[in-house]
Each structure stands twice: as C-alpha cells, then as structure tokens.
User: Fold these one by one.
Assistant:
Number 1:
Amino acid sequence: MTIYKNLIAGEWVGLDATKNINPSDTNEVVGLYADGTTEDTKNAIAAAKAAFPAWSRSGIWERHVILKKAGDEIMARKDELGALLAREEGKTLPEAIGETIRASQIFEFFAGEALRLAGEVIPSVRPNIGVEITRDPLGVIGIITPWNFPIAIPAWKIAPALCYGNTVVFKPAELVPGCSWAIVDILHRAGLPKGVLNLVMGKGSVVGQAMLDSPDVTGITFTGSTGTGRRVAAASIEHNRKFQLEMGGKNPMVVLDDADLTVAVEAAANSGFFSTGQRCTASSRLIVTEGIHDKFVAALTEKLQALVVDNAMKPGTHIGPVVDERQLKTDTDYIEIGRKEGAKLAFGGELITRETPGFYLQPTLFTEATNQMRISREEIFGPVVSVIRVKDYEEALATANDTPFGLSAGIATTSLKHATHFKRNSEAGMVMVNLPTAGVDFHVPFGGRKGSSYGPREQGKYAAEFYTSVKTAYTLA
C-alpha cells in the first residue's frame, strides 16, 4: 500500500508507517500513514520558523485565494472525504459528509476574514499624537487535534492560523490521520509556500512532546483530554507560550415538566447518542423534573430501541461503532461502574455483532442516577447517558451547574421565564434551548468554562484573539 507521508518544508517525507484501521470493519486497512519522529518534528518547527517572516508579511489576497481554493476543493470532494472520515473514525456517512461540508465552510469563512483584517486609529490623550492598534501574527503555531472530528477541528485551527499570517506545525490524532493528510495535501497544492504548513503524524508522546519542548513554538492550540491539556499548559507556561485548550465535558440537558416531549426526546437522543456519543458537547447527563420523568424515560427508551447501530458506511445506520478497542473498553468499564454504583440500566449496555467485525455497542441509558455517581461526573466519551431525577427547575439548575466542566448545556422547556433564566445562569460556555447540546455554527465562538476550556474562543472572528497579538503604535504628527 502507498505510504501517506509527512509534509515538512514543502517535501513529503517519512518511511515508517502505521496502519489506519476501520472501526466498522477491523479487517480493512484504510491506509498506511507516516509515523513521525522527534527529529521530524524539530525539522518541521525549523521550517515553520524559517517561513514565518515572509508569510507573516504576505498579501491578504494571497491568503484569501489559498484558503478559498482549499474550501472549494473540500466541498467538491465532500462525498469522497466524507467516506474517508466515516471509514477511519466510525461516524455515519451522513454525519461524516456534514462534517466535511463544515470544514469547507470554515475555510470559506477565513478566506473572507483574510480580506477583513482591520485595526483602529484613535487619538491620543496627548495633542498631536496618533495611536494605531493592530494585530500581528504570533509566529509558529503548534496544532494538536483529537480523533472525534478529524476534518472539522483541524480546519477550524489551521484556517485561522494561516489567515492571520502564522505558520503551522500540525499533529493530528493517531487514530485518524487520513482526513488530516487530505486537508494538508489540499492546502499544499493550493499554493502555500514551503514551510508555512507542516504535517507530522505520529504518537503524542513523541511528536506532541517535541512540540511542547520547543521554545520556537510560540503558540499551541490543543483539543483533547483534560489530563493531556494540563500537560500542554504546564509545558507552555515554562516557555511563556500562548496556549489554548479545549478539553472535557459532562454536559447537562435539563428537561422540565412543561417541555414538549417530542422535542425533548429528539434533543436528548441527538445530544447523547449520535456520533456514538463521542463529542465533547454530548449531553451525558439528562436532568429531568418529576412530573415528566417517567413519560420522558419511556419515550426516550422507545426512541433508542428504534436506532440502528451498524457499519458507518451502511445506509440506514443511525449510530456507528466506537472508535477503537481502547475506547470501547472505557465505555464498558463505565457501564459496569454505573451498575455497581446503583444506577438502573434501563436500556442497552451490551456489545453487539454485525456483518463486519467492529467495535459495536448498544446505546446505554441509566436511570435512578445521582449527580454524585462517577457516571454523572466523569467524561465517558461514549454512548452512555444517565438520567437524574430532580424536584423542580431550581434543583435542575443547581444540578446542571454542579460539575467540574462547563462546555455546553441545554434545556427543554416551553417557559420563556425558565429559558431566559437558564441562559443567564448556566455555568457553560454554550447554551441551547430546545436543541441538542451538540452542534455549533462555523461562524460563532466555540468554547467553555471551568475545566472544559482555557484561553480565547475558537471559530468565527473570535479566533483572532488567540492567533494574533495586539500591537499599539504611537506617532507624533
């Protein structure tokens, strides 16, 4: 098989490779992808540093054209790239194509932002002096992305980094190198100068660590586990480096007595189980008031019974496999923890077999859970959801906020009073009313509070806060 190599200083390099396995059919090798070394990473950082002076002063039209070309090609190849995504990550084909379209839209947005770069000119408090406030690119940006959104998250980090004049060293998750390689190849062919964008695939303990150790990396944007995020923060502080972290979530969905039952069930099922529950914005805590609790659980259980778990590429599949064997073990371990803690397994929780060998798990619903149980406090990152019964709205809000995380939160209600109060008092970075907790537009800020996020928001015009540094210049008239 062809080895898909790393891109360093404009050249495709690398001999050693790792198999990319399809979680829907473990007999299928999606491709062989280069396994980068510490030396590869150092070379990539050096190339990015060398390319920075020219790229940081490049014209806005050049950046616009390259980013737009990339967005156009991704959109034109959405079916092909969506199929690659579904095969390597296990997301259903419709979801995968939708994610690919989102990646295209992100590049289109930042192609526009390249033409909208602006600053301020204001008078000084001193006479005959002018003040200019502008934004400069940071320098070499290290990008580390997770496996659950293998084309959208790389897009929403790479596109603004390039838009604002930075150079990039990019390390995708080991499990899903295919989509990342495709994005880099598209940008490379779109006309990026050598060294502006460098791809080093490989182990986090090797490639990621080399990025953290380098004083020449002036900013790191990371999405992944809370534990790794803390290590990124500690290493970045040592180098006085700017860093941005998107980490875990234990997102609540509140369902009040006055909720539209159909709307609430649809939002909860989508939030908790679609994308196999492998979203940092997934709602794994359903906080339900007493009056609607039993009807809601019955309706949600009926909904889960109708969901089809199967090969991600198969028409009619609602939920694909878990991404790999290690994550599957994490999911099943937590299911056993929930049982031992005293929660009631109301539905699912069993491994299932399909026509092709894969990591298939029934969507799992616990009831009679409390907010103190581990299954209610720790991120599982799988199709495992707990229902917590509460007395009223006040208890629901307190329970929703009683978490070390704060990424996304939702409420199902027909009460304008409660919806308005929840939006103002939820301790989350993103709040949804009568909608799934997962699903954010490409042009608006993404991020959370508490242990979920650190640093400026991602996406939209707010991305400039991380990828640039503000400069204030004075001129005597």
Number 2:
Amino acid sequence: MAVGPACFPEAMAVAGMRLGTARAGLRPAAGDDLALIELCPEARIAAVFTRNAFCAAPVRVAREHLIENPRWLLINAGNANAGTGDRGMADARASCAALARLTGGRTDQVLPFSTGVIGEPLPVDKLTAALPEALQNLHEAGWASAARAIMTTDTRPKGATVRVPVGGTEITLSGIAKGSGMIAPNMATMLAFVGTDAAIEPSALRFALAQVVGPTFNAVSVDGDTSTNDACVLMATGRAENPVLDRDHPDFPAFLDGLERVCAELAEAIVRDGEGATKLIRIEVLEAATVDEARRVGFTVAHSPLVKTAFFASDPNWGRILAAVGRAGCEGLAIDQVKIWLDEVCIVADGRRASTYTEAQGQTVMAREEIAVRIQLGRGTASALVLTCDLSHEYVRINAEYRT
C-alpha cells in the first residue's frame, strides 16, 4: 500500500557522481540489495545521523570517516548491523577496507550505511563478494536502481530532483531515500542521500543540511519509532563551475530553497509509503507560543494510535484529536481559544464541538485519501507542519511478520 501514484524522476544525473548496485543476498526479496556511490576527488560531504543511543556500527564508523575526504558511500539493505557490539564495528570497517582495496582508495574514504534487521551479524563475505559487480555498474544515471537497492519494507523507490539558477549557471540537486517503518526521526530519517554539482564551501554545505532537516525529514512520523541507523548525507561535487557559494553569497538562499524542496519531497514520499498507509495526513499547528510548542502539538497528534486508527477507519471521531492537543503540554492553554479543522470543516471552537459541525461533514472529509488537520492554538504567531499517515491492519501484519 502507498498513498498517491508512484513517481520517480527520469533525469537525476549529477556531474561528478556515479551510482552502482549489485545483489549480495542480504535481503530475502529479489533484486539488488547493495548500492555504491562514487564521488569525484574534489567532492565535499556533510551528514547528520541518528541520536539513538544504540546507534548502529556503520553510523559510528561513518562519523569517524566523515572528517576525512570521503570518496565512496557503501549502502546495504537487509541487515542493519545494529546491536552487534565489537563484531559489528569490525564488520563495518572490514566492508570499508574491502572496497578501498578494490578502488585503490583508503579505508577512511568509505562511508558505510546499513538498513534492515537489528541484532544480526552482517554477512561481510556476501557483501564484499558483490562489490566488483557494484563497481562495474557505476554510472551517472544509476539513481533509480540505487533507490530500489536500499529499500526494505518500502513498496516503491523514492527520488527527487530540482534545478536552480546560481551565479549565471544552473545547478542540479538530486536525492534518493528509503524509509517506510520505524519513522520518527531525531535528525533525519532512515537513509537519505542528496547530491549536487554546486561548488559550495564545506561550512556552508554543513549549515545548509542542518537548516533543511528540521522542517523536512524531522517533521514526519509513521509510527513514532526512531531507528538506530538514520542518516542523511549531502554531497557537493563542484562540477557546475558556479561561483563558490558561501553563506553570504546572494544565491545561497536559492540553493537552500532548492535543497529544502528535494528533502521535503523525499520526506513526504516516505510518509506516503508508510507501512500499511492508506492516507496522508498533514497536521498544521498555527498560533503557537513557540515553534517547539507547535511541533510538540503536531507530533502528539501524529503519534496517537487512537487518532491514526480513526483516520484508517474514516471515522470522524474528532474527540481523539482534541484529547491529543490537550495532553501536548501547552502550559496555560486557553481551550476556548483553540480551533481545530479537518480540511474545510471546523470541528472544534470555543472549547467544544463547533456549532456548525455535522457528522456528515466530518465523514466526508475522513473518507478522503489526503487530509489536512489545522490546529489554531490562539497563543502566538509560531507554526509548524508535521506529516503522518494512518495506522492500519497492514502495518501490524508487516511488523509482526518482519523476520519471517
């Protein structure tokens, strides 16, 4: 299941980047489960990672290697290499070393990423045996195959691309992501890889990534769980030959806008493909005292199993949304100032059910595949947008059978 039609961009090539895939046999499903991204020597990388205390071995190794000048990203599906202790660290490093031997690079120039089952040892022999094929398959047009190779419970690949005028030339920003369950990010979401041919200073690259993950990848939730393996990587090759961007460059805001558009599209694609999802829910919180308060209210609603199952059932049980707002921790909340809307229908006003609301109106909205929940707190001018999906029987089945 997924909400809305599947759509993957046709032209995503970024000069200075090549992607290749292979089947290592780490994932039970058919198809490739190993992806490789190769960067030109002058490329620069920024990344953010999960804050989960049990972060996976590849996350720890990637953090260590990020301070060097990485040339390759090695990504496997089917095994998270998380909760694997010292062996997991050794396996992650061994994978990097195997790729370095084949490419003539250094081990610390490889960033490893893994996704899949937690707690199982990484089959390094299988992974390394597939590396020659992945290297042979490297090409600039490999984005779609790479997006498919990194999928786990995803039902479709996720990609986005934009072109932005900068300094008299046009730069490209392209990205892929995977994620369907265990989605409630605390930095980015599951795995996302965005590349650009823009020339940009490393500090500006890091700043740009930090700016966009908040309103995009950190503003979605499928099930309220944060993964051990979350990572989001931004790579810049400099091949567009634009004037080098820094934070003071007049075109830097245009670059930021393009990056946010790519990340927002990928983040929404993850929610649309949430495990068992049948509906996309946009929760907009307005008139909050602070942005943090707005986000807290939004996520309280988004994480509520009662709210999510009501959406799945197309049941206009608006009291569940009201209760979630009330328990979100807004100190001194004046409930008579709160208004709640389902699309065009006001369901709550003056601290109670809106006088104009009818069950038939609510039923009409809840039957839709995409629904907007608008919550006006009447406390200030801050706002936030959170994306989520419903909670269906299929979500329970997928996760009950995840290892079988």
Number 3:
Amino acid sequence: MSVSRFPEGFLWGGATAANQVEGAYNKDGKGLSIFDMVTFVPKEKRGNMAMEVRSEEELNARLNGEMGDNFPKRRGVDFYHRYKEDIALFAEMGFKTYRLSISWPRIFPNGDELEPNEAGLEFYDRVFDELAKYNIEPLVTISHYEMPLHLVQKYNGWEDRRLIEFFVRYAETLFSRYKDKVKYWLTFNEINISSISPYIGSGMLVDHLENREQAIYQALHHQFVASARAVKACHATIPDAKIGCMLARMEVYPETCHPDDVLAALEEDQKNLFYTDVQVRGKYPSYMKKYFKDNHIELKMEPGDEEIIANYPVDFLSFSYYMSMVASGSSDKKKEKGNFFSGVKNPYLEASDWGWQIDPKGMRITMKKMYDRYQVPLFVVENGLGAYDEVEPDGSINDDYRIDYLRAHIDEMGKAIEEGVEVMGYTSWGCIDLISASTSEMSKRYGFIYVDQDDYGNGTLERKKKKSFDWYKKVIATNGADLS
C-alpha cells in the first residue's frame, strides 16, 4: 500500500446541517426557523431561487397554510430521533469528525430571549455524548441557515444591529455549555450566500428594503462583527478550541486569455474572497471600499467595530467546494446555473444531473490560491455529488458515480497537501441522504447512507449502506492512501 499524503490526525468525516436532517421542527420547545418556511417546488416549476421568501405577505401565506403542506426541511430525515443509529453508522465508516450545525431556534426559540431552552441544549448534549462514545470529534456550525423566524418578522434579520447581541448571547451559551465536548467551531455557514439570497443568508425580506445592496452589506457588516465577537468569546471560554469561518468557494476561470475576460474572472474572485479577507485578514479590502464608493454604499459602523474585526480573526478557513465557474468580459454570454451561482458554461467539464460543472482539479487550484493568500489552515467541510440513486432489486445501491467524484476530489486535495497546503480535514457533504438546501428535494441524494424517503415525505426512513459506504470506510482506514 502506498504511503498516505495526508498528515497524521487528519480529520476525515462527513457533514450535515440541522435544518436538513433533524426534523422535529416543533418538538421540545423549538421555534420556527427561516428554512421551515421553504416549500417543495417540483423541478419543472422551479426558478433559480425556490427557497427565497421575499415579503411578509409570502411569509404569512406559508404560515397560514396557503402554500400547501410539503415543507421538507420541517421533517428532515428524523435525525432528532435516530441520531444514535446514524452516529453508529458514521462510526462504522471510521469517522474522525462529524460536522453538524446547532439549530438556533432549538436553543433560543425566538432568538431574542434572555434564557435558553433547556430541552434544546439537552438534545445536543446527548448527540455530543454519543459522538464521544465513538471518539468522533464534533465540528459545530453555530449558524447554518437556521435563524429563528421571529428575528425575521420583528427585526428583518441581520439588517438590524441588535442581532449582534442576540447571536453573541447564543454563541456564548453554546461555548459555556459544551466547552468540554466541542473543540472545533464555525461561526456562519457560507456567509457569502447573503449577497445572493438575503432571506437565507441574512433573514431579510428584500421587498422591505429601500436599497437592496446597501442592506445586504450592512447586514454582512453586522455578521462580521458578531463573528469576531464569537471568536473572542470562544477563545476566552475554551482556550484550546479552534474557531473558523466558512465560505461557499467558487473558483473562477476567464473564458479566454482576452484581458477583459481575465479581469472579469479576477473581479468575480475578489467578490468571493471579500468575506474571508475580512474574517481572516481582519479588515475590509481596498477593492471593496472602491466598490462601496462607486455604488453609493455607506456602511454604518460603531466605534470599536473595526478594532474587534481586526483583533479577533478566525483560526482557520473552511469552505465548501462543489464546482468551478467561468467569467466573461462580455455581458451577452448565456449563464449556466449551479449551486447558488451562475457563470458561462465550461466546455471542458461534465456536469451533474443538476447542472453543476464537475471540476476536481479546480479544488486543488482553489486550495493553493487560498493558502497562498491567507497562510492559515484550510478545512474542506463540504464536497459531494448530488445525484439520483436507484435501489436495485437485491437492495444494493451502486453509486459508482459518487465514488468517482469523491475519489477525484480527494486525490487533488492530496496533491495540494503534497505541494505544501496545510489542511485540517475533509467532511464530505452530506454523509447521509438529507433534504437539499437549494431545492428542498429528497431525490437529490448525497449520502453514503440511503434514507428511504421521497420528495413528499413518503417512505420508511430505513437506512441502507450504499456502495460508497465501504469505499469511504477504506479511504479513512488508510488515511487516504487507498482511493481505489
């Protein structure tokens, strides 16, 4: 067997989010979240942003049952009651870490209470204890598209600066409660999604905004301050903990070597890395200050904001990587949709069933670029293939296409490590089938573990191992040396 390129102690595992797996949306005192309002829309009727809620009227229609009763994220895959079974399966694969998120409204049902919901805290105590039983390190996302709905209704989300205090109280509650159980933390999941989906990323109803861009960047400023304050609180409460940020990474190529295309790709890259520039480097980059000036965006900052951002950068940079994009200097080029982003079609790449362009080498490119830029450890916390899986008559699920996708990406990650990039770990998205974030489909499957449930909630919820289960088990057992 060949020698592993991955360092000793590399954190292999898988990733999920509370709103996509837990279910039990109204149990044990949990409040409603923003994703509890997202209905299932069949593919033929779906726009690019099926999950967006734009107005109070839309929100009320969903609350009053006028949008039907198929809210897939409310039911998840019942991890809330089946976590022991699922964690046992993760342990059988050999997971060293499990990335999960905590549901903010399970801890603070409305988000602005002074005291937390004890039943919610106890649930995660049980989950962390179960993980500890198998020596699986939790990697916890504090906010993963899980804002309490009340904060949208009363404050229009992160547009209101008061959310900083609510978030810090929530984060401090988690650090204090789980200081002996959790050593790896992330503040905001894919913080850059706010610029594309203000509702999901920042809890804002855009029809209420006078100036959309002004509000988005003001909300992001509040999140940057809240993230820095969470870093400060984490280090004070759990001195040996590591806390990072999280970016939806989009590597961008120029369509041609024409300088206009190269410049367009550079500017798209800057838009993507602006968020990590603030959270890792600790200051707003000059190119964004120019963008704000050109677009008449004036951020309202309070004394001390810039200091807290500068003094409490994150310890590491985590990111999701599914695909790359192509930028053109021409405005009339047709855009291809994928993930939350869109770009010109890359003729050299194949695409998934959902049109996401598959580019393993792009992950190595992006890892090298980000490590060159920041010189902090990286953590790949989402990477996976959403696909239609078929259960054979004998019960087997032969997802060779998923194995091929993951093998190619892990191989490129290994090459980046050989080339000097410091990488803490890799958590494949979603290690068990879950509700899709962007489309609310169950049929868009990512897992090594199949869950018997369809897009309408029908099924037994039985868990079955796919072919990729044993493949990933071997990858972990050999510390990435055997990808065959």
Number 4:
Amino acid sequence: MSKHKNFINIFITLVLLCTSLLAGCGSEEKAAPPGKTSVVVSFNAMKELVQAVGQDKVAITTLIPDGTEPHDFQPTPKDMKALHKAALFVYNGAGMESWTDTAIKAASNEKLQVLEASKGIALIELSDPDEIKEHGQYDPHTWLSLANAQIEVKNIADALSAVDPKNKDFYQKNAQSYNKQLAELLAKYQGKFARLPQKNFVTGHAAFAYLCRDLGLTQSSVEDVFASGEPSAQSLAQLAEFCKEKNVKTIFVEDTVSPKTSLTLAKEVGAGTQPIHTLESSAGKLTYLQRMEENLEAIYKSMK
C-alpha cells in the first residue's frame, strides 16, 4: 500500500472518531424529502448517471467537489454524515476512489447499500509498475466510454430497484431509454471515425483509453493515467516528435489537470489547444450526453 493510501486511511479513521462524537449532537445534513431515495455519489459523472435513472425519485449528494481529483480526495466529517443517512452509495470503482472502503466503515450505516458502478466492465490493465504500485492494476476512467456507461446505468438501475422496489419499473424504464441514447451516440461516431485514415489524438493525461477502445482510436498523453508527476524531458521530446510526425494540430486539455506542459507542447509543435471533458466535475447545464458528444466531435474534427 502506498504512503498516500496509508495517509488517507489514517485520515478517515480520525474522521470516524469525529463523526461518532458528532452523531448525538444533531446534523446539518437534511434527510431526503418524502418520496425520494437518498443517494450519495462519489463525483459528478456518477451523479449524472444516477440522475438519468432516478430523476425525481432520488435526492443526490455528491462528495467530491468540482475541481478536485477523485484520486486525491479526502472525505470530511460532513461526508461521513451524508453516508450515515443515505440509502445508497454509488462510486465508480476500478481504483478511482481508493478511500471508499474506509469511508463506508466510518459512515456506520448498517442499512447503506453500496454500488461499484463499474462492476462487470472489462477493465484495461495498466503496464507501468510505478502506477500499479501507487494506484492499482487498472485504468479507472471507465465512465468515459459510451459502451461502459451503458453497463454503469444498468447497474445503477438495479441498485435503485433494490433499495426502492416500489419504483423498480420507473428506474428500469429510464435506464433503457437512456441507454438507447448512449448506444445511438456511440453508433454515430463509430461510423464517423471508421471513415478516417488518421486515428491519433493527444491529451493532457491518459484518461481516454476506454473511449479509444469503443472507437478504434489511439491516445497519446502529456501525463500518465493518474496525472501524477511531471513528464521527463525525454518523454516530452518523444511526444513532440510524435505530434510532428502525425501532423497533430490539437492538444486536448482537461479541466482538472494543469495545462502548463500541454501549452508548452502545443507551442513547440505548432498546435492549438482545446478543452476536453473528463466529467469529473460539473459544467453548468451541460449533461453527460452533451459533453460526451462535444468530446467526440472535437476529437473527430482534430483528425480530419
């Protein structure tokens, strides 16, 4: 176990003590409104998928604030209290949220149902020994795939049906309708990308391997899967050479990763930069489907 994970576990253990002391003193966290199921989610993408399935039958609390990397998040006493009152906790899993097991224990909620939304997805194994040692064996960015999202939506519908069986038909119908939209968007871009001879794109960090698997694309990145550390001069030089060789005209920049190195790379190879959504944070009124379509269209145009 890494020092980072050890620190998180120690931190949450201390939070558990604080939560226990606060439990008898009232709570600022309000119970879910009548007729709604209380659901806590880890970060924004999970919120959007739960909302698509649960709609007006769920009251959702998101633990990780916008702009915070889920890898580095540390739950607070308020987060523990939210979990203590919830009926369902939905997190992505696959190594994305290393703190969940300890947080669930700290919440001390015997009735809490827990869903790892990525269960059943064929996970992509990492190859870098340092990444595996620090973060685990798999790439956790499963939700950035329209095919994977359909599995996560089905898992969410089943979990909501289990905690709120009287509304099972409602959840299952919503999941089927939403998955139809996901499948249609995927089919649209599978067709568009299939007609392109060039299928390479460059991002700030390697978050899009599952999207690449959906569409037969190849990503290269400034930083690794977990956007940890600075790239070496040698690796950056190799990436610059790759960009020139493949005539890459766009470097995509994520909102949760520092753009400094990406901007330097873009300047060196004569490329522009463009934002790309990782959906770890919200984006105003833009939905999961809208942002995924924006991503796909931007990547498509960069390859033409």
